[in-house]
Amino acid sequence: MRRQGASLPNKLATAIQKFFASFFQKRSPFFLLLLCAAAPGDATVTLTTQPGSALETIASQLSADDLKQSRASGDAPVLLVGSARLAADKAGPAALFVQVQSAAFCGSAGCSTSVYIRRGGTWTKILDSISGPIKVSPRIHGGMHDLLVHSHDRFVWNGTAYADTLPVPTGAKP
User: Exposed, middle or buried: residue 85 (CB in 10 Å: 0-12, 13-18, 19+)?
Assistant: First the structure.
């Protein structure tokens, strides 16, 4: 939440987000998504449990198959959600980051996170199955901020989704 060199302590920023989230939660889930979105270039996208929130409800719907599969294998999955504004013009919708934590979806590289944006009334997956801490970069491609995973793996906007910029190693099968 930095603006021109000023910053709020993390606890204060979190308290403000929680206040607005609880106040507007029942009024409009999309307004809530905008309020909770991190500003581009700030910090790691924070994924948290938000039981009963509008964001959690949307994330549950988007991850219904994964949650069902996890429960069927005897796991008690935990759903984490976060949001960040990715459009360079700051007028576009905030993205929804969704992570299902369970043995079926987590491995040695961590748990898998998917990213969605709302287009024309429908949630569209724009990045699938990434693991690790995610940051919104100040660098822009195609009108959207780049995403950094583990601070070094850069994903850039190709007009419809995010694509990894790491080259495929020589001899590797695509």
Answer: buried
